[in-house]
Amino acid sequence: MSVQTGKPRVSVGIPVYNGEDFLSFALDSVLAQTFRDFELLICDNASIDGTPQICQAYASRDARVRYFRNEKNLGIAMNQNRLAKLATGKYFVWVAHDDGCAPEYLARCVEILDQNPDVVVCYSKTQDIGEDGLPIGPDNPHRVNEVPSEKLASDSPFPRQRFHDLIQLNHQCEPDYGLIRMEVLKKTGLHGRYADSDRVLLAELALHGRFHYVREPLFLHREHTHRSVHAYPSRQRRTVLMDPTQEGKIVLPYWREFFEFLRCIGRAPISLRVRMSCYSEMLGWLKDYRLKLLSDVKVALQDTARKILPGVVQRAIKRALAGPQPKL
User: Fold this and answer.
1) Which domains does the chain have, with CATH numbers?
2) Does the pLDDT value for residue 325 go beyond 70?
3) Is 58 left (phi over 0), alpha (psi -120 to 50) or beta?
4) Residue 315 has pLDDT above 50, yes or no
5) Contact, 224 vs 130, CB < 8 A?
6) pLDDT (tens digit, 9 = 90+) per residue, 172-206?
7) pTM of the model
8) Which of 9, 17, 4 is nearest to 244 (CA)?
9) How far is CA 162 from CA 192, 204, 208, 290, in A?
């Protein structure tokens, strides 16, 4: 058992719910880091599988591991945010319970942040792995039509350019699993209780400073059928995962994201000129994603009709919203 004194340089936070299948892989990958000055925080969102036993076993073996368990499922967002609030390190990184990282990941990111005070997030190229832990090649179907991290302007010296790229819906938010300066993270809204809130957090962090992208594949992202984006393709359902109190309520996730972008612009430490330029970017966002915003309204109308109208009226509304059907 290793002994640690004083505050660690890095806090690693692993949020988990029923993660017994892959959790040990994630924990082992963190504990195998060549950089040793870190604490490993695990926040268990009231798991009902073997997760608690796994966590307790690791905490008993290594003093750097601290295990916390929620009495009830608080939703993904609050579980993630609790980790950030418990952390004591200068730098913080989330690691999903089903992902992992190469042994050099923390060392490389700490080195970059130490040497570049204007960098607020350091993250690396991603290596996709399957359920068996083996690498997935560049033909991964889940990356079709996405903008790769190396093409994002997250390292631009201009806040507006960083903000423009990170608010787009065509990248996988991989910087969210990079090493973040804690002093900056504390000034943000953290993860909001709605689907895609990681994108808003990244956009807000980008208004504080630039990101650094390590071009070595040091972050291991696991693709499997139980990932939330596969198991719950609807943003409405994923919003309930983020915040269980939204169950049964009308939610407008794209509209919520739009207004949260506006809020993060409003509280960011930027000049009035930059602030106004970022607000203008949101006008373009409204135009680019107008169909997704409209889909929110359609879903809300259908959900409302399902609750208060008889079946025949519900079907009529559904046909009207679907538009004219092609003749056979």
Assistant:
1) 10-231 (3.90.550.10), 235-322 (no CATH)
2) no
3) alpha
4) yes
5) yes
6) 999 999 999 999 999 999 999 999 999 999 999 99
7) 0.90
8) 17
9) 20, 10, 10, 22
